[in-house]
């Protein structure tokens, strides 16, 4: 079966649509499991996988969500900043900055709040091939990897 794969990068999420069968879905699922993903949710029409961060290898956490409608598959994948990281940053900011002995603590607190607000606002990142700025190389690398895995599974 030579399925037509369509990939679009929507800013926060990359989305692929393809027609396929149970066997092809199982091939994609197994390929993702070999890439250190773990299954978060699996039922008849939905499969969600997560991959933890490997910061020493410049890899951020990633999620893959697969929804099925008959033989049509919608696959969404993205890197993200975990809520635990954001909450930990805010707690550290509130606990450590007041006793850090910084000359202008109000300015530092303001900058830290801006950083936390940006992390909350832009929590998800797509895997586009022309990604720039935030996590450029991992996003490009995973975009290529996901496209290759999808082509191998549904090709």
Element layout with pairings:
Elements: E1 6-9, E2 14-19, H1 22-34, E3 38-42, E4 46-51, E5 62-69, E6 72-80, H2 83-96, H3 105-121, E7 124-125, H4 136-154
Helix pairs in contact: 1-4, 2-3
Give a description of the structure.
- The protein has 155 residues and is of the alpha+beta class.
- The chain is 41% helix and 26% strand.
- It contains 4 helices and 7 strands; from the N terminus they run ββαββββααβα.
- The protein has helices spanning 22-34, 83-96, 105-121, 136-154, and strands spanning 6-9, 14-19, 38-42, 46-51, 62-69, 72-80, 124-125.
- Strands 1, 2, 3, 4, 5, 6 and 7 form a 7-stranded antiparallel sheet that branches.
- A hairpin with a 2-residue loop joins β5 and β6.
- α1 packs antiparallel against α4.
- It is elongated, with a radius of gyration of 19 Å.
- Described by the principal axes of the CA atoms, the overall outline is elongated
Radius of gyration: 19 Å
Count of separate DSSP helical elements: 4
Which regions have little confidence, pLDDT < 50, spanning 5+ residues? none
Descriptive labels:
single chain, alpha+beta, 155 residues, 7-stranded antiparallel β-sheet
Summarize, please.
The chain has 155 residues and is of the alpha+beta class. The chain has helices spanning 22-34, 83-96, 105-121, 136-154; strands spanning 6-9, 14-19, 38-42, 46-51, 62-69, 72-80, 124-125.
